Amino acid sequence: MNSRIFTTLLLVLLLGLLALPAASQDDLLSFAAADCDYGGNLKSVEALDELTVRVTLCNTDAIFDQEMASLGLSIHPREWIESTGGTGDILTTAIGTGPLRLVNWDQGNEMVFERFDDYWGEPSIEDTVILRWNSEAAARATELRAGTIDGMKFANPDDIPVFRADPNFNLIDIPPLTGVYVAMSNFFEPLNDIRVRKAIAMGIDRQRIVDNFFPPGSPLTPDFVPPAVFGHVGEGGVPGFDQEAAVALLEEASADLGFSLPLESLVDTRTGESRGLTLTWRDVVRGYLPNPGIIANDVAAQLADIGIIADVQVVESGAFIASALSGNEPLHILGWHADFPDASNFLTCCHGPNMAQMGEPYPEVYEPLIAAGQVLDPDARMSYFQQVAAGMASAVPWVPFGHAGSADVWQADIIGVHPGVLDGTEEFSRLEDPDDDNIIYMQNAEPISIYCNDTWDGETFRACHQVQESLLDFEKGGVAVIPGLAETWDVSDDGTVWTFHLREGVHFHDGSTLDSNDVVATWHASADCASPNHTGRGEGFAIYLSIFQQFINPDQC
């Protein structure tokens, strides 16, 4: 071939290659809502290059950095999500980036974690961490005293002063960043009548419950948001205890609507079917609910005094949460332990415009709640939270009854002990046992899964926190936001565009390397009903929904 022709052909070929997008650019993932009219606040997520992710919001989010530290947005390998279809093995087999890796889940017994030697940060001090569980505080205390475990979650309130006085143990107080409530689903008649819901609220002596069954010093306020959290109003909210007024309201509603007293049955407004009135709960001690069975029965007994007869039923934890979030539990007891210290965390969990736990959502509650998240000025935000409290007083969707503190207990010689101030944030990799090479901890219930993107269960989050990480994180034992998988991040002036710069050389437990496509694929599985991986375990990706209000392509859910 003539050398001039060859040179010309080579030049044409090179110019053609330069005109094509780089292969790495071709492979970058993204997804977006068609527009912001779908009702959510996530506009798009884009991988800009191998280590840069851009998240664009429809509106400013005042606490977006705190939300990015939630394990409900923890990052998983793209290939793992796609191979599992977002369900099945991903629920029981963790592939994360954390300092510990899950090596065995002996369901019903224990989880075993081992040090992940390729961790990007400080390696785990001990070789092994074992997470066990028992629903009975007395049983956990017995094992702690026997030395078969190094630490335990949620001491019985009566045992707290005993452990505090014993030099063999280190008692760690957990501040009352909690709220607990009796929820009422308006999917059921006559709970869809405001007079009935007000009667239930006035029929429960909340102070009696706090005084008799909560740890000393636990406050009671009409606001579900605890006093230490920004956005606590401390006034207004649901009506207080007044049995006579409760009876009068029930009698008035009964005469108008035609139901009999005492009230023992309901009608599902969606199906027209009649069913017995139940008060359901799960047999899981939580910081917000130290004596669940005792409290459930006490609430039922108080309601019986005003003419409401509820059958108290305990439901398996995972099934209970899924059913409650769907609005299928007429009366039920649940609560919240802060994931981040803001009132929005306590309210969007249950009262967003697309949350069905209380039945049809109440605009007088969720409209000012959404507005509170979209302004940055603290005074303006407080004004909106006061409007939320007024909406609660108008709608009475639930009956909050206290903010319980709690305490964890450790063997005195364990080094590095710190509180899990936010739900499930203990870092077992930072603990040291001078006597052996493991840490054994006993919590109050078995995790529901190991896929925290589709749960809101604190016991699950504690397990996930050891092995999985989000773009941002909270400082050990505190509430300040620090870098996580994103080493740095930038925010546009209007607060709607967040650009996260990922750490280089971060490895997942399967040996793969973190890149921006893993972030996009993980978020896509949670965010978009059109994603084939939007499956999970059936809890409706509740943390994501509480942050962003709605899924993309909701008609495909």
Rg, alpha carbons? 25 Å
- Please identify which CATH superfamily of the domain at 178-269 and 328-400 we are dealing with: Dipeptide-binding Protein, Domain 3
- What is the rounded distance between the termini? 62 Å
Indicate the multimeric state. single chain
- Average pLDDT score: 93
Main sheet characteristics = 7 strands, mixed
Sum up the overall morphology in one term. Answer: globular
Class of the domain at 178-269 and 328-400 in CATH?
Answer: Alpha Beta
How many beta-strand runs?
A: 22
Strand content: 15-25%
Under the CATH scheme, the architecture of the domain at 178-269 and 328-400 is: Roll
List the total number of helices: 17
Short descriptors:
557 residues, alpha+beta, Dipeptide-binding Protein, domain 3, seven-stranded mixed β-sheet, five-stranded antiparallel β-sheet, 17 helices, 31% helix, globular, disordered N terminus
List the helices and strands and how they pair.
Elements: H1 3-19, H2 23-26, E1 30-32, E2 42-49, E3 52-57, H3 64-67, H4 78-84, E4 100-106, E5 110-115, E6 128-133, H5 137-146, E7 151-152, H6 160-165, E8 169-174, E9 178-184, E10 188-189, H7 194-202, H8 206-213, H9 243-257, E11 265-268, E12 274-276, E13 278-281, H10 292-305, E14 311-314, H11 317-325, E15 331-337, H12 343-351, H13 363-373, H14 378-395, E16 398-400, E17 406-411, E18 438-443, H15 458-467, E19 472-474, E20 481-483, E21 486-491, E22 497-502, H16 516-527, H17 542-548
Helix pairs in contact: 7-9, 12-13, 12-17, 13-14
